[in-house]
Design goal:
Helix content: 25-40%
Strand order of the largest sheet: 6-7-8-3-9-10
Radius of gyration: 18 Å
Number of strands: 10
Order of helices and strands: EEEHEEHEHHHEHEHEE
Shape: globular
Number of domains: 1
CATH superfamily: P-loop containing nucleotide triphosphate hydrolases
CATH topology: Rossmann fold
Strand content: 25-35%
CATH class: Alpha Beta
Structural class: alpha/beta
Amino acid sequence: MNPANLIEIIDLTKVYRLGDIQVPALDEISLQVQVGEFVAIMGPSGSGKSTLLNILGCLDRPTQGQYLLGGEDVSHLSREKLARVRNQKIGFVFQSYNLLTQSSALENVMLPLVYSHNGGHPKHERLKLARAALEAVNLLERERHKPAEMSGGQQQRVAIARALINDPLLILADEPTGNLDTHSGEEIMQIFDALHERGRTIVMVTHEPEIAAHTQRTIHIRDGHIDSVQQNHKATPMQAIGGGNEAI
């Protein structure tokens, strides 16, 4: 594997079985994402983009092919090992926020630390890390508020803080502005831009070209194949050259 690549996918195929029928979702896809790169994935419904994101997030396994994440072949790990990879190396941001409705913003952000596979963190350390993550998305003053007491944009900022709490190698965002108005969506993209500028590696699924324009590359998928790759002329930040992530 090229050490500049965080993600390397080689001849990746995913086939679903519906009774006796085989339905191909991905057909021998190969791609690379460099450390510190910001990439968008676009495609029509049924193109395979959600299947690809699930495999990148270790939520599913390919039928054939390889997926290397940070040099580790995670293609066919057991469910337990995939869960460990997800917890330690990947931060997720979803369109629907996926926050616990009866928990405060602070408690939602701390959740990955509670389920951490690296031995866990003392409560005072969890509180410190969660407050730092909320401060990074300008939401520390809302730490005691529950999701119903916050706007959609604020809830998504909580979700981003939660994705950052374990200092992941990779951030995966699935339509992160899909439930937001234009102004709130632009605020969320400003946060992603700031994360990218500090060296974070981000892969984002979107159906909005103006959102994809924030990224360096747009990968267009159709019928389980990469249809085209569009360069968006956004430079890789200097912070990514060393491969390190910063605190935001």
